[in-house]
Structures are given as C-alpha cells and as structure tokens.
Amino acid sequence: MENRQNSALLVMEKLKEEYPEARCQLNYNNTFQLLIATILSAQSTDKKVNEVTEELFREYKTPTDFLSLAQTELEEKIRKIGLYRNKAKHILEMCRILLEKYNGEVPNNMDDLISLPGVGRKTANVVLSNGFGIPAIAVDTHVFRVANRIGLADSNNVLETEKQLMDILPKDMWSLSHHLLIWHGRNICEARKPKCEICPITEKCDYFNMKKV
Length: 213
Ligand code: SF4
Fold this sequence. Notes:
Blueprint: H1 2-18, H2 31-41, H3 46-59, H4 63-67, H5 71-77, H6 84-102, H7 110-114, H8 121-132, H9 141-150, H10 158-168, H11 174-187, H12 206-212
Helix pairs in contact: 2-3, 2-8, 5-6, 9-11
The structure holds iron/sulfur cluster.
C-alpha cells in the first residue's frame, strides 16, 4: 500500500506540473450558484453552462430569486443545456426545500446535500470541496476513467473508485486531485484515444505499461 501511495503522490506531482492552473471551471459567485451550476453541468460542458449562467446569475442569485420563475420560464433560460426540463424542475424543487429546511442556505454535509432533488454524490462532492473547502473527491466520467487507467483505482463503479482514491491519496490532496484528473482527462487522457505519446505519467500508468507488454 505504501508503494502505491507514493506512486499516487508522484502522479499528482507530475500532473500539478502539467496543469498548474487546474481548478473548477464553472463560474459562480457563491455556494448556491455553484450548486446550480453543478446541477446544470450534468451531461453538458462547463463552457456551455458558463454561457447560460452568465446571464442567469446576473438576475437570479438566491433561492427566492429562482422561485420567482415559473418552471417554463426557467426551462427557457437554460434550454441550451441538455436535460433542461428535468433540471429546471429539480432546481425549483430544491430552492423550495432550501428555503423551508435550510433558511435559504446550502447545507454543508453529504447527507443533506444528496437529499436535495437533482443532487447526487458527485454534485455534493463538488459543492463540499469547491464551495466549503471540505476535502472531497467528486468522481465524474473523467476522474473515473483516468484514475482506473492509471491504476490509482481498480473498480467498475464510481463509489468504489471514490473510496479507493480517498484511501490512496492524503486528505489534503483530494480536492486538487479531482481537478488534476479532470484536466488530464480533458487534455491528454481522452476517452476514445488517450494521447499517451505526450503524457507525462506513462511510467506510472498501468494502462500504458500493460499495452507495452
Ligand atoms: S499514459 Fe495514456 S492511458 Fe495512461 S494516463 Fe497517460 S494518456 Fe492516459
């Protein structure tokens, strides 16, 4: 285990050098907006979400602001984003619950977050780490693919991958590691054709080293 932990740290050091600017790419001004942006980002790109929220967040900043919209009005404002009907419904339901149960604030713990409509474990982890500074590893499609290719995890499901990453990485690296793996997945370790020829961590990558044999 110790060797695997050292190896994981080396991978993260290399990725830090490669992506010194790695961070959350969603734009937001407060934790509530981060929660909305993260819900909107499911099956969409951060770029598209930022395009939509630039205008949306100028006018709608709090749960009360959002509840001034009918569902069809919110749908209209976010229709460039995939699954916009469901997302509009969930966002308005969530705003109602935030006001009724949480005084309009976003809760800062996993159990309360995942009890909200449209909020799964990945979204909750993004909010905990980026919004509250609580160490967490949100496993999205990039984190899942890249972590399992490298061998930081060995699992076919996201929950187990999250647990294995938390075991192998020190807690103060969790949030940054999430960003580094996403950036690596977007830039080099792409889903269909990983660019191993320009990857800085080939030595530490199970996928690469197994292919060579
Ligand atoms: S060596 Fe290839 S498969 Fe491994 S992390 Fe780099 S790009 Fe991905």
